[in-house]
């Protein structure tokens, strides 16, 4: 098989000598490190982002010790965590989880690996740009990591880096953060343009837009969000770097006084400006986090209920509408700045409107379950858990979208609980579902179902133990930025005990990731061998490509598509699934 | 297996991959500069007073050099014209070449009736259009460099008069926007310079000198500077480590063979035309940004 591929490649390579001349006779570095094959790059993204997710989780577990037992020495390490280190870990936990963990896993890894195969393309449209995108991301991550070891430590002004606090932060941690962000933004620009062109230009013959799997649609909308929402943050990052390094006053107001001393700047800047630029990215970013997850859940639900997704068209239109609307809701993160009632009214209206497409998507998934003969395998369990968990995250967001109820809730643990329900048991569960679902495609072997179920049920309980108490604390008014978890505040005393519950939940969550880690590595080598279409799915990555797909070309020949993405249980068919590339015969 | 639509356009979308890619990139750039122009609007509307670009510093203005900026505006527009000419000389040459190739299939008597004797050699047409292309592309690069020289003169004039970004928010905006625009110009010069010359031949011929002499010397100078300026030794020697890594991993060699420059005109002429078209689109965008920057910074009255 390998030999055949090589000779095929050789022929094609003669036609096109500079573009793909590294395909045959690849050296070790070319094959595993500087590969232009979208599958290798997808795996690189996957491994790197999983490591960053683990690092962000470790930071959080250390912070949870400080919150549960304030100022007690941490076991093993032997010293208590200072407030500065707590702030640094808090800022870096958010940054690492979002920009280096979840987005690269959802878009970089799954988008890179799955999208080209699902649209029937031999590779991404720009393979070398794709490699550059990964390595720029890698350098950005490296810069963030290095900032832990410089004098005075990494950024400490929250993942939102609000000025003037971030402008006057001591040391160079904030500079590292900003430069790292510029790299990450560049990487996502390269990656998202690549995904868009791949989806629009490289679709296989017959694969019309309304025949694209929902996952591809989700990636398309996500890529447009990344492409258009990230640059304003890059602009903001450049401005803040100018403020910090060149002494300008973009975000420094006139007459700013720090620890009793007037700050020596020209003034005339606006701290609110940063918030506008930042949230102009960071609200679409929320949908960048959730849309790939919804795409994965859609694939897995259709596959495991053995029936078409209910309301495919409304799902697609909802995703597009969600993308458009996400650009005009950003200031609902800024009610506390006192923007005035007119602007607040506008943004709370758009925020209520944007909840509609999310509900459409969730409802379509729920109805898809109706009357299906559901297979409860591990990916399906994670996908099913996504629905109520994302539901809780979404519904608790409604009070935050309304100006009046947001003001007392905004700086409390309620907000932390809300967005973690969306991202942790929401998105990350969907990403786990995706890993279990596509693992056989990537490695040719299945992950162990028993260990997978232990992983799922343990994580499901632990996640809720971690995040549910945050709503209780938040409603009691505990601020979300305290290094001692509210120890010194009278109104927090009744709910302090939940700090320990949450912390034990988090450490429990860590224990239940061990089966996953073991399962992941052992299945690569000793897992049960999987057939090409192990889940009896209909989409091209399962029906037209072997597991794993051929290096540098995916398919023996480009498939032709004749039907929609989820033709399960068609009447009159021998099988309960009909591949997208199966020619029409019975319908005539 | 080749990636489809790298050269020809996809029928239902009407573009080739690179063109869609460059338009998406430009959309992203619009958002980047949009964010910065929004910053300008917000800071200006919130400011108590704002400097007027054309009024000298002694009279309370910003003291920007309007005649020089006008010169720069014209020169950028001229460079946009020349890059179109560069593209057109390739595209027209290619069309003629195809016409002749088509003619050769016709019967002899028809060939004789159409007098194309002067143009009947496809190789000659190809070489000639490349020369024309190099002329116009060289002109484009020359204009861009002139723009940068004028810009450097302006910057230097301000620094020598004690004007820095931190002096006033007007200058903060001025230096940030024109600086970022200048970086885009430099990027364009690098890309256009890449298309100008036969880099594969040049690098293969001089590769020993470049990779074993010039690059190491530059890197060592960089390290010396970094150590001298007080950065950590680890940071300072990291470029050398990176270079050794690239050399050992064989990437440098791959790099040489992977950058044809204008030699792509010989091997894949249609694709080369596409690349020049994309470079041209980018260059027009950089030009357009300046068309906005010029009135906003130099001509608008203060308050």
Task: Jot down its keywords.
heterodimer, A: 588 residues, mainly alpha, two-stranded antiparallel sheet, B: 303 residues, 10 helices, 0% strand, globular
State the distance separating the first and last CA atoms of chain B.
63 Å
Strand content of chain B: under 5%
| Low-confidence blocks of residues of chain B | none
Helix content of chain A: 55-70%
Helical run tally of chain A? 18
- Radius of gyration of chain B (CA) equals 24 Å
Describe the strand arrangement of the main beta sheet of chain A, using strand numbers. 1-2
Radius of gyration computed on alpha carbons of chain A? 24 Å
First-residue to last-residue Cα separation of chain A? 37 Å
**Any idea what the shape of chain A is?**
globular
Mean pLDDT of chain A: 92
Number of strand segments of chain A = 2
Class derived from helix and strand content of chain B: mainly alpha
Mean pLDDT of chain B: 88
Helix content of chain B: over 70%
Could you list the spans of chain A in which at least 5 consecutive residues all have pLDDT below 50? 1-23
For the largest beta-sheet of chain A, the strand count, sense and barrel status come to: 2 strands, antiparallel
Most extensive chain-chain interface: A-B, 63 and 52 residues
User: Would you report the number of β strands of chain B?
Assistant: 0
Give the SSE string of chain B.
HHHHHHHHHH
β-sheet strand percentage of chain A: under 5%
Brief sketch in words of this structure:
The complex is a heterodimer of chains A (588) and B (303). With 588 residues, chain A is mainly alpha-helical.
Overview of this structure, please?
The complex is a heterodimer of chains A (588) and B (303). Chain A contains 18 helices and 2 strands. Chain A is mainly α and 588 residues long. In chain A, strand 1 and strand 2 form a beta hairpin. The longest helix of chain A is centred in the first third of the chain and has 36 residues. Chain A starts with a helix and ends in a 45-residue tail after the last helix. With 303 residues, chain B is mainly alpha-helical. In chain B, 76% of the residues lie in helices and 0% in strands. Chain B has 10 helices and no strands. Chain B starts with 16 loop residues before the first helix and ends with a helix. The mean pLDDT of chain B is 88. At the A-B interface, helix 1, helix 7, helix 8 and helix 9 of A face helix 1, helix 5 and helix 8 of B.
């Amino acid at each position: 098989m390998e030999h055949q591929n090589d000779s095929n490649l050789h022929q094609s390579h003669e036609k096109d000598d500079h573009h793909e001349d590294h395909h045959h006779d690849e050296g070790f570095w070319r094959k595993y490190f500087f590969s232009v094959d979208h599958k290798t790059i997808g795996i690189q993204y996957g491994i790197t982002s999983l490591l960053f997710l683990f690092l962000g989780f470790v930071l959080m577990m250390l912070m949870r010790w400080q919150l549960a037992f304030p100022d007690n020495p941490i076991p093993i390490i032997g010293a208590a965590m200072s407030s500065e280190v707590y702030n640094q870990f808090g800022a870096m936990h958010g940054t690492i989880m979002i920009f280096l963990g979840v987005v690269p896993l959802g878009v970089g890894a799954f988008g890179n690996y799955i999208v080209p195969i699902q649209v029937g393309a031999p590779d991404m449209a720009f393979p070398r740009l794709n490699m550059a995108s990964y390595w720029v991301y890698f350098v950005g991550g490296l810069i963030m990591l290095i900032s832990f070891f410089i004098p005075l430590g990494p950024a400490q002004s929250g993942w939102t880096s609000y000025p003037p606090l971030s402008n006057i932060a001591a040391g160079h941690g904030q500079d590292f953060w900003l430069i790292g962000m510029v790299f990450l933004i560049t990487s996502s620009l390269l990656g998202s343009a690549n995904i868009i062109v791949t989806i629009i230009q490289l679709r296989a013959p017959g694969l019309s837009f309304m025949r694209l799997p929902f996952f591809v649609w989700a990636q398309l909308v996500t890529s447009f969000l990344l492409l258009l929402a990230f640059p304003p943050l890059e602009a903001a990052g450049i401005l803040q770097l100018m403020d910090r390094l060149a002494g300008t006053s973009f975000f420094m107001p006139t007459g700013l006084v720090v620890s009793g001393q007037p700050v020596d700047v020209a003034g005339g800047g606006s701290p609110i400006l940063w918030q506008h630029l930042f949230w102009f990215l960071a609200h679409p970013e929320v949908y960048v986090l959730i849309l790939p997850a919804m795409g994965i859940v859609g694939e897995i639900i259709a596959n495991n209920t053995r029936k078409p997704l209910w309301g495919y068209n409304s799902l697609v239109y909802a995703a597009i509408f969600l993308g458009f609307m996400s650009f005009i809701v950003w200031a609902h993160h800024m009610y506390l700045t006192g923007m005035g009632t007119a602007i607040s009214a506008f943004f709370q209206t758009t925020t209520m409107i944007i909840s509609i497409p999310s509900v459409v998507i969730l409802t379509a998934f729920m109805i898809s379950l109706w009357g299906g003969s559901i297979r409860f395998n591990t990916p399906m369990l994670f996908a099913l858990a996504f629905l109520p968990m994302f539901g809780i995250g979404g519904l608790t967001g409604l009070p935050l979208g309304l100006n009046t109820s947001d003001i007392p809730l905004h700086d409390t643990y309620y907000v932390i609980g809300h967005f973690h329900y969306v991202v942790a048991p929401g998105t990350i569960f969907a990403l786990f579902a995706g890993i279990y679902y596509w693992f056989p495609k990537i490695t040719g072997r299945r992950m162990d179902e028993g260990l997978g179920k232990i992983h799922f049920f343990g994580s499901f309980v632990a996640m809720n133990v971690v995040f549910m108490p945050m709503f209780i604390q938040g409603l009691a008014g505990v601020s979300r930025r305290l290094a001692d978890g509210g120890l010194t505040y009278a109104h927090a005393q009744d709910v302090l005990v939940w700090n320990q519950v949450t912390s034990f939940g988090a450490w429990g969550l860590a224990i239940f990731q061990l089966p996953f880690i073991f399962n992941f590595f052992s299945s690569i080598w000793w897992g049960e061998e999987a057939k090409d279409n192990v889940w009896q799915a209909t989409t091209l990555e399962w029906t037209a490509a072997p597991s794993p797909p051929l290096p540098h070309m995916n398919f023996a020949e480009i498939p032709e598509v004749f039907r929609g993405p989820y033709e399960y249980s068609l009447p009159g068919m021998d099988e309960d699934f009909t591949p997208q590339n199966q020619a029409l015969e019975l319908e005539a | 297996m080749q990636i489809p639509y790298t050269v020809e356009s996809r029928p239902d979308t009407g573009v080739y991959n690179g063109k869609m890619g460059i338009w998406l990139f430009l959309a992203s750039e619009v958002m980047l500069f949009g964010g910065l122009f929004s910053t300008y609007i917000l800071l200006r509307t919130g400011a108590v007073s704002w400097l007027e670009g054309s009024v000298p510093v002694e009279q309370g203005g910003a003291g920007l050099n309007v005649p020089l900026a006008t010169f720069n505006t014209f020169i950028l527009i001229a460079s946009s014209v020349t890059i179109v000419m560069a593209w057109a000389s390739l595209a027209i040459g290619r069309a003629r070449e195809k016409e002749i190739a088509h003619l050769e299939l016709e019967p002899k008597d028809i060939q004789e009736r159409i007098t194309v004797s002067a143009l009947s050699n496809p190789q000659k047409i190809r070489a000639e259009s490349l020369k024309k292309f190099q002329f116009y592309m060289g002109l484009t690069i020359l204009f861009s460099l002139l723009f940068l020289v004028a810009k450097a003169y302006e910057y230097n004039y301000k620094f020598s008069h004690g004007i820095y970004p931190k002096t006033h928010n007007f200058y903060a905006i001025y230096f940030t926007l024109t600086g970022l625009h200048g970086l885009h110009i430099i990027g364009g010069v690098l890309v256009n310079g890449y298309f100008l010359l036969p880099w594969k031949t040049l690098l293969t011929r001089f590769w020993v000198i470049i990779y074993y002499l010039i690059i190491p010397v530059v890197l060592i100078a960089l390290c010396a500077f970094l150590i001298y300026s007080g950065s950590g030794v680890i940071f300072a020697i990291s470029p050398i480590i990176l270079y050794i890594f690239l050399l050992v991993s064989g990437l440098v060699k791959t790099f040489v063979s992977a950058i044809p420059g204008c030699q792509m005109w010989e091997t894949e002429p249609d694709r080369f035309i596409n690349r020049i078209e994309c470079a041209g689109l980018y260059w027009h965008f950089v030009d357009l940004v300046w068309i906005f920057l010029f009135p906003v910074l130099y001509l608008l009255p203060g308050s």
